[in-house]
Design a protein that fits this description.
Bound molecules: pyridoxal-5'-phosphate
Distance between the termini: 52 Å
Largest sheet: 5 strands, mixed
CATH topology of the largest domain: Aspartate Aminotransferase, domain 2
CATH class of the largest domain: Alpha Beta
Amino acid sequence: MKSEIWLSSPHMGGMEKRFVEEAFLQNWIAPMGPDIIKFEESLADYTGVGYAVALSSGTSAIHLGLQLLGVMKGDEVICQSLTFVATANPVMYLGATPVFVDSEKGSWNMDPEALEAAIKDRLAKGKKVKAIIPVHLYGMPAKMDAILEIAERYEIPVLEDAAESLGSRIGAKQTGKFGHLAVVSFNGNKIITTSGGGALLSDSEEYINKARFLATQAKEEVVHYEHKEMGYNYRMSNISACIGRGQMLVLDERIQQRRKNFDFYIEQLDFSGISFQHESEKVFSNRWLTAIQVNPELTGVSGDEIRLALLADNIESRPVWKPMHMQPLFQDCAYYGNQVAEELYTYGLCLPSGSNLTTGALNRVGTIIKGMLKHQNPRKQFDEDERNLSSQLVFASQ
Ligand SMILES: *Cc1c(COP(=O)(O)O)cnc(C)c1O
């Protein structure tokens, strides 16, 4: 059996182990300690966001972020439909209801037109839309200028799901700095990992202090155990933060490695019928995962057939996220848009994208895929035409 090639596996830099050993020597093996503080400082420094609180997961960060924005039972939260379920689950933890919005074809992220249509319709139906959650899918920044303009016009706060996009930018501004609050994740498959963890970021010190308070059981600052509010146990372990400190030292290198994977794939898979997420002008993606769209009419093969062929060679690839509005869990939720997210899901495939992939590994993947594609004119009518189709919104009536 050939050696396994993973979709996205942890990639340590070297200092992580040393920071962990130092913490052991000083017995800082707790959900508090000096490494958490240093890790939070490095996150704020790197992203340019004022304040950061390190938490047990990206999901817990979204939960706290929505609570800080005042999301309550009976409210609605507008979410990008094409995402991992962790974006939407916390909406329900709070007793609120997600409303899903389609993607646009370039970035694969929240379509501003569908967003505005959703807001108008929800307001017309007398609903309280308390927050908007755009996602920077696979590291590609969403169209934040347009999204923020709409959000401001309707006075709805934005929580940015930057779980996959640490290090991505629009112009000089890092993802995570656009929303009132933003979330990053350090799960094992993300661009850097703490083995599991997340963080909430904001320019508001008040928000971050409140999040830290809620994440430590909402314990009042007195000697005895005094509680006025319901809290959670959501703090990151100091040992995880040691790993995170080491990973921050190699983040830029990891981004370069992932971008090189993308460069490899886009060069090798230069066939019409294969297209990629589009990095528009001024945008810089960390290219966390390289995902392709496979148009079987042009390639002669489906994304799933490619996935199975890779699997037979011990190579892991995955479908693009199945949109939330197609999930049984969310079958009663409203959805605004047309078929873009469905299409991206139907034709999408995420390719091995780890920063630790060798040239040999990439070549194995490339060779298998190329061998399956019909050899016709390379490139590129498909993407450009598809991308430029203006979206015709079809509204779900709810
Ligand atoms: C990973 C991820 C999360 C959640 O992060 P966890 O740390 O796994 O809880 C949230 N949103 C998106 C889009 C993600 O990919």
